[in-house]
Each structure stands twice: as C-alpha cells, then as structure tokens.
Design a protein that fits this description.
The structure holds two protein chains of two kinds. In chain A, the strands form two sheets. Chain A has a four-stranded parallel β-sheet with strand order 2-1-3-4, sandwiched between helices. Chain A has a four-stranded parallel β-sheet with strand order 6-5-7-8, sandwiched between helices. Chain A is of the alpha/beta class. Chain A folds into three domains: 2-125, Rossmann fold (3-Layer(aba) Sandwich); 130-205; 207-385, Rossmann fold (3-Layer(aba) Sandwich). Chain A has helices spanning 11-21, 34-43, 50-64, 81-94, 111-120, 127-154, 161-177, 183-196, 216-220, 228-234, 245-253, 283-295, 310-326, 341-361, 367-371; strands spanning 2-4, 25-26, 69-73, 100-104, 208-214, 237-241, 300-306, 330-335. The longest helix of chain A has 28 residues, at 127-154. Helices cover 51% and strands 13% of the residues of chain B. Chain B has 14 helices and ten strands. In chain B, the strands form three sheets. A four-stranded parallel β-sheet of chain B has the order 2-1-3-5, sandwiched between helices. The longest helix of chain B has 27 residues, at 298-324. Chain B starts with a strand and ends in a 10-residue tail after the last helix. The chains are: A alpha/beta, B alpha/beta. The interface between A and B is large, with 41 and 42 residues. Residues 49, 51, 79-81, 215, 281, 306, 309-311 of chain A line the site of one iron/sulfur cluster. One iron/sulfur cluster binds next to helix 3 and helix 13 of chain B.
C-alpha cells in the first residue's frame, strides 16, 4: 500500500515524515501546479471552494505515481471541509480509481485513530516508534515555521530577493531530508546565518508591516494565493501571520495547551466586539487576528480566502467595521481557478500605495522611507539627499 | 413593544413559531413585505458582494424593517436546530454581519439557538434574554414552549401538499389557491428561503404549475422517511437542510409518481455546492440543477423549465410506449 495526502503549503514535510516513520510507504504528491488545478477542476463540483479542487488534483497526480491510499481529515461541520473526503472519494470512485481512503474523523481525530487505522492495514508499530515519529515531525513543523518567519523578515530587507528565496527553499529541502531530531535546529540556524550575511536594502530599513489573515489553506498554500507572501516580500513588505502550522496543530489537536507552541486561543476574545460567535473555518480567528494586528500597530491587513468561503464572508462583513474602529486598512482577496497573477499584483500595489500615502499624511514618516529614494511615478528623487 | 421579523432565511420555517412566541409575551409582531426589487437592491448594495443572494435579500428585509421604526428586530443566531447538525456558517454570523453593516439598525434580538449538543443551551439562552429584558424567565420559557406548537401546525399543513410559503398563508388564516393537478410531478429541492421567495426563485413553483407540473417539496413528505433515506450515505450529512435534501431526493427517486427533480441553488452557496453533486450522482431520474443569483432573468429560467418539462413528457410517452408495446393496439386509442 502506498499512501498519499493533500498538500497544504509546507505541511507535507511533517506529514510525510510522520507517515514514513510509522512504517508506511508514502507518495508525496508533486508540488501544486497549474496541471494539478486543471485536473482537480475538471472533476470537481463547479462551485466548490478552491482547496477541494486542488486536493483532488493532488490525489490524481499522486495516483499517477503509484499511490493507492489517501489520508484525509474529516469533520462535523459547519463548513464544507468536513464533507470534503466523502465527495472526493465519490468522484475518484466514479473515475474508476481503486484506492483506500483513510479518513480521520473528529472527535477522535487524535493520533490514536490514525494509529488504529494504520494497524488495521497490518503495519506493526511499537509505541516507541510512534513517539519518535511524532517528535520528529513536530520538530519539522517547528523548523518549517521558523523558516517561514525568516522569509517574512528577511525578504523585504535584502537587495537580492532571488537569493534569499533560494536560501529558504534550500533550508526547507534540508529540513525535509533531515531525520535527526537534534540537527533540525542547526539546519535552520545555518539558514539564518546565511540570510543575515546578505546585502541589506538600505532604502527599506523599516519596511511596511502587513498582517495576513484568512482561511488557513489559502494562507499557507502559496499556489492557492499566487505566492502572496513572496510577492509582498519582493515589494519590500514584511509579512506577519498569526496562523501557522505549529499553532494549528496546537490549537486543533492539543486544545491550545502545548507549552512552547503558539496559540490563538487567548486572542479570540479580541473578536468579541465584532463577532460574538464562532462561525466555522477560521472566521473568528480572522477577526481576532486583525484586531490584534491593529493593536500591534501593523500598517495594514490582507484577508485571503477561496471565493465563496462562508466563514470568511462572515468575517469580511464585520472587518469593514474593524477597519473603521481599529484604524487599520484592510483588503480582502478571494481566489479561485480564474484569478490572474497580474490582477493580484496590481491590487497589492494599489493597496500598498494607499497605505503609504496614508502614513505620509499622518506624518508618521517621510516619503523617502516609504517609497524608496525615487518616486515610482515620475522617478524624481525624494528628499534631495 | 413592536418587533419586526424579516421575511428571509428561516422565516419560512419558523415565522408561525416566532410570531406566537412574541404574541404570548404581549408584543406586537410585524413582518417585512414579500421581497421586491427595491428591497433586494438595498441588500445588494449593503452586503459584501461575495455574499449569497439569500443573505443579501435578508439585508434588504432588515433595512425595510429598520425604516419602519420597529423597536426590535428579531434575528436569531441559528447555529443548530437539531442535534449534531448545523445550517450554514453564515447563519452563525448573521446578527454580527447586520450590526456591522447597517448603521442605525434597531436593537437586534439575537437569541442564540444552538441545540447541537442538547436543549439545555436553548433554555439558558432564553433565561439570559429574559433577564436582559426584565421579563420573568418562567414566562419566557413557557411562551417558547407554547410557541413550538405553531411549527407543528405549519408542518401539518404542508404535509397536506402545500409549500412552506402557502403553509404560512394558510396558518395565518388566508385561503390558499389550490394548486391544480398536473400531468407531470416534479420534485423541487433547495433552501426554503430560495424556493419560497418569488424574487429569488423567479416564481419557480408558479412557473412549474403553469406548465402543468405538480410540485413536491420535502415539507410534503414524512420526515422520518426522509431521514431514513438520507441515512444511506456512508457519512451523516451534518447540514440540516443538506441532509433533508439528500433524503428527499433519494426518496422521490424511488417514487413512481415523480417524473424528475429540480434543485434550485443560489450562486455561491457553500453547502449546496457539495449536496447538489451528491444528489446528482445518486439519482436515476432526470435531474436539473438550476443556479440563480441576483442577475438571473425570468426568461432564461422559464426556457430551461420548459425544456425540462418537455423532456419529462417525452420520456413519459416513451416509457408508456415501451411498457405498453405488447398491447400496442391500445396505445393511441384514448
Ligand atoms: S472554510 Fe472556506 S475553504 Fe474551508 S471548507 Fe469552508 S468554505 Fe471551503
Ligand atoms: S446555506 Fe447557502 S444560500 Fe443559505 S446562507 Fe448559507 S451559503 Fe447562503
């Protein structure tokens, strides 16, 4: 049996490590590409949300590489995700694919359920093996989060963006290949050292800081958001993102109780004046984080979600008020298979320009700091220096 | 006290109950009129453009009530109306959405109705509200318990063959126009607030009846049989409406009286994007998915409905010819 699972950003690094260490034969789907999306879209319900379509493309491409089992999470609502696996299985069966679907259902979405299913497949794992598998993939999650945070920090601050991105990619690859618990931190430390050796962009000493909120898949999967974080970084913006993999695992699998791991539980109350109830998905987290970003004096927030995403539509409806009352500019971006990169970059640029003018008007800082030494429109030099 | 109940979303399931509840507390109840273009237009301008049409229409109704100077607007947070089920994430956020986007909105009575675990939650919520309003909790609880009978009454009316919209009219003592018999029978699926709102559905029921088709909706069927049919899926559908639609579709699919099925869905509806597919791939009868939004025109819908009904009639003739072929001589004799 060769097992696969859907992509979500860099989570494959930890998931594949976990499954491998449990003794399973793993097929990591090829990175999400245009083809993945085309395949997925062809067989998905027309109006289903984007992650579903990319999931389906992942499965089909993994099956081309010999996968015959799929690991997927379930859920009990209120949002569509809880029923994804059911409909995905329907579709693949109708396409004549033969496979096993391992669905981890809440409330026993804990590891024990996965283990029982693994054991049912006839694979014997000792508790010690399980424990080390979990520890290793947890370290990998932490390493991935750290690398992403490094990218957020350094990409806007260095002149050679391409090299910076390559260093991060190399770091991710090294983490993926590393199976020694103790060496994981060293791998990231080395990337950090290399990054700090890059030439700084003196014109962008204190970059704009933009907080990202929204639906988790769209946040974490660069293919689903047209590499939003890198686009922003290349435009000289430091990205801040409360949602990440360790936070998600901590909040959803451990009830937010893991010490030494980030959690959004404590900040949820920030949403209270605007949204008084949970609304499925990440709707409430979106509102809470945005308020938090405003209080941390970030320059703006961008909400991302798949088109028709219900929890995010609820969040978006109240974000207009958050924008007014907390004084933080917010832009919402929805993504589907028809989105185009050019349009996205144009919208980002317009949003950033608006923020810069706003900052200049409030006298926070001068033009040179905001626009670099030359005006983007007429190329005249700012400040005469 | 005058409380306004907007004619949108689950109004079509619960208006009799909600009205009874407030009447028992000696409050006056008023509703917004049936959706018209102007109201829908107001909703479209106020809600975020990505919201589904029924939510925009609801905004329109709330704006209308706000303009009429009611003391309160009743807009419960319908999280869950039965165990282990939800309706839609948007239902869980709607009071907050309205407050955030309609400046000067009258105070909302946003009772949080969540019985996904048990009924206890609901009574605690009623007590909380009673205290806030300075009412005796016992009185509020009693009013609520008494009011549930109205829902049973509405359901009983609909079981006699009426849609929810007609059922409410009958419940209020109006005489309903008897739908004439049709030569076709069509099962109509979808959310009650889409089907029964003539502006959203573009008069679907009426159009079908004009074309000689009798309509069957889930409210006309035995709810237990619907549940049983829905339970055939490998995993329980956790959306109240979605499960009902799956069960209804599977049930009607086996009913020899029913010629075909129409699923009316609103563009951008999350649950429907999955449920419609689940149904489409499980039924054998002719199935039509009709997607509408604020830009849909009546003409386009009528054309599709006519084509569908024609197809059903042709199919029926063919089947008749096929079934009767051994007795072919009788075929055209009457
Ligand atoms: S949260 Fe959004 S993306 Fe996720 S299942 Fe719900 S609608 Fe789809
Ligand atoms: S169920 Fe569909 S139509 Fe109803 S509010 Fe939710 S998304 Fe809109």
């Amino acid at each position: 049996m060769r097992i696969t699972f859907p992509h979500m950003g860099n989570s494959y690094i930890a998931i594949s490590s976990l499954l491998k260490e449990l003794g399973l034969d793993v097929v990591v789907p090829p990175p999400c590409s245009k083809r993945t999306l085309e395949l997925g879209t062809r067989y998905s319900p027309e109006f289903v949300c984007l992650p579903f379509k990319i999931n389906l493309g992942n499965y089909l491409e993994a099956m081309e590489r010999g996968a015959d089992a799929i690991l997927m999470a379930g859920g009990w609502g209120p949002c569509r995700f809880g029923y994804y696996a059911q409909v995905e299985r329907d579709i693949l069966r109708e396409l004549g694919r033969e496979f096993n679907m391992v669905i981890i259902e809440a409330p026993d979405s804990r590891l024990t359920s996965l283990l029982n299913q693994v054991r049912r497949m006839g694979i014997k794992t000792s508790w010690f093996q399980v424990w080390s598998a979990i520890r290793l993939s947890w370290e990998k999650l932490k390493a991935v989060d750290r690398l992403e945070a490094l990218q957020h920090y350094w990409l806007p601050r260095v002149t050679d963006k391409g090299r910076c991105e390559k260093m991060i990619d190399a770091g991710l690859k090294a983490v993926d290949g590393c199976d020694d618990l103790r060496r994981m931190a060293e791998v990231v430390d080395r990337v950090e050292r290399d990054l700090s050796g890059l030439e700084r962009d003196v014109d962008n000493g204190s970059p704009l800081r933009i907080g990202l909120v929204g639906e988790i898949y769209t946040l974490l999967e660069p293919f689903a958001n047209y590499c939003l974080e890198r686009q922003l970084g290349r435009m000289g913006v430091e990205v801040v993102r409360d949602v990440n993999l360790t936070q998600w695992v901590n909040d959803h699998l451990f009830g937010g109780f893991l010490p030494s791991a980030p959690s959004l539980h404590a900040t949820l109350s920030l949403a209270e004046p605007y949204l008084q109830y949970w609304v499925g998905g990440h709707g409430r987290e979106t509102v809470a984080s945005t308020v938090g970003y405003a209080r941390r004096e970030l320059d703006g927030a961008i909400q991302v979600a798949p088109l028709t995403c219900m929890p995010e539509i609820v969040a978006q409806s109240v974000l207009e008020r958050v924008q007014e009352e907390e004084g933080i500019p917010i832009m919402t971006m929805y993504f589907d298979e028809h989105a185009g990169e050019v349009g996205i970059i144009t919208r980002l640029e317009a949003f950033l320009d608006m923020i810069r003018w706003r900052k200049m008007k409030t006298g926070d800082t001068d033009a040179k700091n905001l626009f670099g030494s030359r005006c983007r429109f007429c190329q005249h030099e700012f400040g005469g220096s | 006290m005058r409380v306004g109940i907007p004619r949108g979303l689950f109004f079509y399931h619960f208006y009799p109950q909600w009205k009874t509840f407030f009447n028992r507390l000696d409050w006056e109840v008023t509703t917004s009129p049936p959706t018209n273009k102007k109201m829908a237009g107001g909703g479209i301008l106020t809600a975020v453009s990505e919201a589904c049409f029924p939510v925009k229409v609801l905004y329109g109704h709330v704006l209308e009530l706000a303009g009429r100077g009611v003391d309160y607007i009743f807009m419960p947070r319908l999280v869950s109306i039965e165990q282990r089920s939800y309706i839609c994430p948007k239902f869980m956020g709607i009071p907050d959405m309205l407050r955030a986007q309609i400046p000067g909105i009258p105070p909302l009575i946003d009772l949080c109705i969540d019985v996904s675990r048990n009924e206890g939650n609901l009574y605690r919520e009623l007590d909380r509200w009673a205290k806030k309003m300075g009412l005796r909790p016992g009185r509020v609880r009693k009013a609520w318990n008494d009011s549930t009978r109205a829902t049973c009454e509405l359901e009983a009316i609909c079981r006699r063959g009426y849609t929810l919209g007609e059922g409410i009219a009958i419940w209020e003592g109006k005489t309903a126009v008897e739908p004439g018999p049709g030569d076709l029978t069509v099962g109509v699926l979808g959310h009650c607030y889409a089907l029964n709102d003539p502006l959203i559905s573009l008069g679907l029921f009426e159009r079908l009846r004009e074309m000689g088709a009798a309509v069957v909706t889930s409210e006309m069927l035995d709810p237990q049989k619907i549940e049983a049919a829905a339970a055939r899926l490998p995993k329980r559908v956790f959306w109240t409406v979605g499960r009902k639609m799956v069960g209804t579709a599977l049930m009607l699919d086996e009913d020899p009286e029913v010629d075909g099925l129409i699923y009316l869905t609103c563009f951008g509806c999350g649950p429907d994007s999955m449920i419609a597919r689940i149904i489409e791939h499980r039924v054998n009868k002719p199935f039509m998915l009709l997607t509408v939004d604020e830009h849909s025109g009546e003409a386009g819908v009528v054309t599709r409905l006519e084509a569908f009904c024609d197809m059903l009639r042709r199919k029926r003739r063919l089947e008749l010819a096929h079934n009767l072929s051994p007795y072919g001589e009788f075929l055209y004799s009457h």
